Amino acid sequence: IRFLASHEWGRIDEEGVLTVGISEHAQDLLGDIVFVELPDLGKELDAEEESAIVESVKAASDVYSPLSGEVIEVNEKLFDEPEIVNSSPLEEGWFFKIKLDDSQAFQNLMTEEEYNASCEE
User: What is the pLDDT of residues 85-94, one digit of tens each?
Assistant: First the structure.
């Protein structure tokens, strides 16, 4: 699992598909999540492009794609149960999956240690 400084995480599988969500830290800051807007299937995303929106009782926040690629799946459970992001941000609360243009770029994202250190600053 790797992270962006803007609190998104990505997990890559052996087929070069990246699952994307927001971090435990981000959902803590947002509070109770009440709505998630996800990208359209087939949409081409650029690295660090606004790709989704998450709304909580406190605020709305853009979600950025960690890497470039095509959206091949969205987590439809979030339409009816956005609170899954609060209870399981790194597992059940994922947002979307993209087929990466360049899976090697994954290594350029922050490690968990680097991300945690950036959150403490």
Answer: 999 999 999 9
**pLDDT exceeds cutoff 90 at 121:** no
Tokens linked to 73: 């799946």
Rg (CA), the chain: 13
Return d(Cα 54, Cα 67) in angstroms, integer: 19
**Hey, CA dihedral for 106, 100, 23, 61, is it positive or negative?**
positive
Does pTM surpass 0.70?
Answer: yes
Using alpha carbons, select from 43, 100, 38 the residue that is nearest to residue 71: 43
End-to-end Cα, the chain, rounded Å: 21
